[in-house]
């Protein structure tokens, strides 16, 4: 007797393998076919197809006759492939009490000469499912399915692919997850076998030509479990390497948490579990909540039913209650199943945005009074957990939340999607780094857009069309798709700003650049201590905001710019909420630089506005709490700017928050003024006589200048040159203005003289 490793696949995938098997002329029935690369020495004389005995270690050992195809050259030694339905039928001992295991070890041994007989009569029952199927379609499915002889046992489940059996049938339903129908063989009658071996479950061939089919009432039970899948257009040569799990790579920890919640209610008897399984599953829109629940249902062999709470909520409360009652009545006949309520926060408010206690009470009442013969697991998903009312939150036994995906998780998830689609590409590590705020659906959209861009480039380049997409994707396709998504869906996916400011745009301030970069990129000590933020202070116009943007650009960080006054709101609690949302968005966009401009307006000294209960005191306290919370994240850095540091609350300036204050002053010496002037005019087109070293000497009598002052001089000089060019073009009919604007020395001297007059008048 030989122990074999088993791999089970869906019927449609198993059929794809059968169609590629060489050296076999017979038509193989996936319901009774097992594929094996090589058999043991005990079965070495087995022909290409022959009846064998297969068993599993259950309480009662039942042997099943199955066909086997040897030496099919698609797997390793001692590996056996079969359908999910076959594995389910082999595992079932008592379907009404025992939930079959997903994987088990199969034992194969040689069989005596066996000639199966045809059944004269069969009773079959359809398994209740989420499909809305017309009885005529069911009859046609069974008739076409049994046009070919099928070998079955009493108690077997059979899986019918409706789209394959009835390709012309109008079988479209938005609720459908898979187009499969399951039936259970209740009874088989035929001529008795002349020989009998203890423990062997004899079966019969069933065919519409010689068997009378009787369809009895629908029944309920577990369905075959699905664990693995094979990609599209797979190659038999490396079949086992290409096979992949249904669980998205990178989200295994979330799935394991969901599985740990559901298994006690699926494996234990109802009288042993006193709680009703209701769980909250939260996460951003598109983070993969529905995908994980569908995978959970497939792997556990239960049905999946989804309801959108937005469509349940109605202006008529009585109609809403009726729809809720109908859902729970329907789901009782579909057990065992997962009942998925999407957007559950919609039940908490009516159409007028008022609290809807009646709908919540109806929902809770149905849960407490629900009865079913098989387990029903309820998952409520929400992307706005804060909108759930306390009475609803108390119903949930536990909450599972999908947090922001790390770099490793996003890379694994992207490779998993590519593997399922049978696509090979370059290393996508840099692409993943640039998509720090992407969720599951965004990564799918990224791949779809990259494929579209790749095909578009092939067409535009007049190259030969490639029908196989696995070899056409490159990193530049992904980056182009990434830019398109950031431009199109910046608000929807919460993409932060990426400023186009470099160090070349900033003149001078070299000591500040070095200090900020050392704080941001190199921790002060190797033991994990690091600065969490810096405060830039100085007169207006010295370049504090520009410096913060350059830091984010040069360090390849996302940039969130927050003006202090724009967070303040007249409504109680809204200002604190705005601050929480800023830091929440920063955590989702990490690595990120958060820049607070005009910090003195957002965090003034507490106790100056009539007691500790004032609005600004609460805002400062919320800001302090959030800044303490970012210590857990190593990829968020805070920069703040102000020209009145004396007004800021002292608690913000302690180590661990804004660790250090950096003064950004005016340009006092000629070298610093020249550096700023060169940075501001680096894109200017000068005439040959212009020498900035001589021009800057005209400002030597101005003791202190800010970057804004020099910017005003440069802009006035360029405008003067542009007016001269426009005046010339009107006389010469020359329309090429933008590229021919040349700034001369007279323009700069005139702008400096205007600045000195304005400065004198201001004094």
List the defining traits of the structure above.
763 residues, 6-stranded mixed β-barrel, 6-stranded mixed beta sheet, 24 helices, 24 strands, 35% helix
Description:
With 763 residues, the protein is of the alpha/beta class. It is 35% helix and 18% strand. The strands form five sheets. A six-stranded mixed β-barrel has the order 1-5-2-4-3-6. Strand 17 (337-342), helix 10 (357-368) and strand 18 (376-382) form a beta-alpha-beta unit. Helix 14 (440-460) crosses helix 15. The protein is elongated.
Q: What general form does the structure show? A: elongated
Structural class: alpha/beta
Q: How many distinct beta strands? A: 24
First-last Cα distance? 103 Å
Q: What Rg, in angstroms, do the CA atoms define?
A: 36 Å
Largest sheet: 6 strands, mixed, barrel
Count of helix runs: 24
pLDDT under 50 segments (min length 5)?
Answer: 40-49, 93-98, 170-178
Task: Report the portion of residues in β strands.
Answer: 15-25%
